[in-house]
Amino acid sequence: MRTLELESITKRFGTVLANDAISLRVERGEVLGIVGENGAGKSTLMSILFGVHGPDSGRIRIDGEPVVLDSPSAAIAHGLGMVFQHFQLFPGMSVVENVVYGAEPGRFGLLRRRDATGEVARLSAEYGLDVPADASIDDLPVGVLQRIEILKALYRGAELLILDEPTGVLTPQEARALLRVLRTLAEQGRAVILISHKLDEIIESTDRVLVLRDGAEVFTASTAETSAAELAGYMTGRTIDLHPRRAAHPSGDAVLRVEHVSTAERDRGALHDVSLTVRAGEIVGIAAVAGNGQETLAGVVAGHRALERGSVTLADVDITGLDNADRRAHGLAHIPEDRHRDGVAGDGDIVTSLVAGFHRRAPISVRGILRPRAMRAHAEGLIRRFGIKVADPARAVRTLSGGNIQKLVVARELAHAAPLLLAEQPTRGVDLGAIEFIYDRLDEYRDGGGAVLLISSELSELLTLSDRIVVLCRGSVVAELPVAEADAERLGLLMSGAVAELERVGG
């Protein structure tokens, strides 16, 4: 494959114009970046390119010849490979078995394991992927799993690789290593399309960049001739401060104490003698590679995970044995990681989701009877304050975009004015403008004396919002440092276990 061209690709889903006459060209040896806010049309465009959806109009050409990509199999046959944001790997199987699955070398239905292992090892060495062919998937860190996904595409002969947010769960060191691999692939004659919301990453690792907004192309340029700030402006239509820093101020008394907590060893992400404190008027961030205990810690604080040892205290009350409802009654607000599963009832109406937790209080409830007018007034107040895009508050939550559902959950939880906010991935799936807005609201909560335990996979978010950062590795606290002493490089090394360091501050 020498060139891939998309000409005036248009796609509608009902009344929604997802792609509006988008054209792009990518050549061998080139890394093309594609950026845009949620709903800008990136995923639809890549789904069309990989044969998941067909365009309503427009053409796709490879080396000047029109092609029909009506299935992923057809796309693969034409030399395209897709590396999805969420790994498509089989647990309990080896690297080789995952790479060759569905395209196994063999005869009479039998896998020629030696041939498969040799080919996987050859490709791994040729492209600097450093993947252990015989290892079990279950034993490998996420950075290696991402490289295995690339290896799967290369094994199937991919000449153009499409990567959707490939560094989202990687440490900075792992991300840099992956981006070096992409550059190597380009230098060896392949083409790469990189979709990422990390604009600094796009600037550093691509040759050209395309910006989509509201389904249309609004800007394209050589990456060397633009900047992250300019890209953000085209994405949102306004000026965005990409790296705001919040002023630190003195914190108050301890609101949350997690003391010597351990969970069952058999559990993934088990905790081992974890202690930390969150004080009034501060945000404490948790930095960890996925699966290293941050999800378990959130469950322990929320009351969803049982302890083998240790205790949890909220506002001087031992809540170790209390369930989630009782913890909320004692002052816990919670923005859950999975908004759809734990944050809202998708088939319920928007008003009901926004008044959840307030439904036993006046003026929403009087003598145990809900007052619809008061419920609607409460919901509409939050909708205005948080800029939630709602056609009608009586409609089902599932009719909202993912970003607006996230804003709904954030609005409801901050409205409780509880002494402690457990915030898991508070800006996941929202636009740059909404991220800026949520950061401001979290700052207001902190400045008003609230304590925030912030769990985020985005190091930039932790560095922007936190007063202190606690680093977890393999379920243990390996460092605790003020944000003034933290940077992405240092945090990445601590998260990966490459630096054996234990720093305690603040207590």
Automatic annotation (TrEMBL):
Gene3D superfamilies: P-loop containing nucleotide triphosphate hydrolases
Listed GO MF terms: ATP binding
Classification via Pfam families: ABC_tran
Domain ABC transporter span(s) in chain numbering: 4-239, 256-499
UniProt KW Acetylation keyword: no
Record-linked SMART domains: AAA (SM00382)
Keyword Transmembrane: no
Keywords: ATP-binding, Nucleotide-binding, Repeat, Transport
Lineage top rank: taxon: Bacteria
PROSITE patterns: ABC_TRANSPORTER_1, ABC_TRANSPORTER_2
SUPFAM superfamilies to which the protein is assigned, alphabetical: P-loop containing nucleoside triphosphate hydrolases
Protein name: ABC transporter ATP-binding protein
Annotated organism of origin: Nocardia callitridis
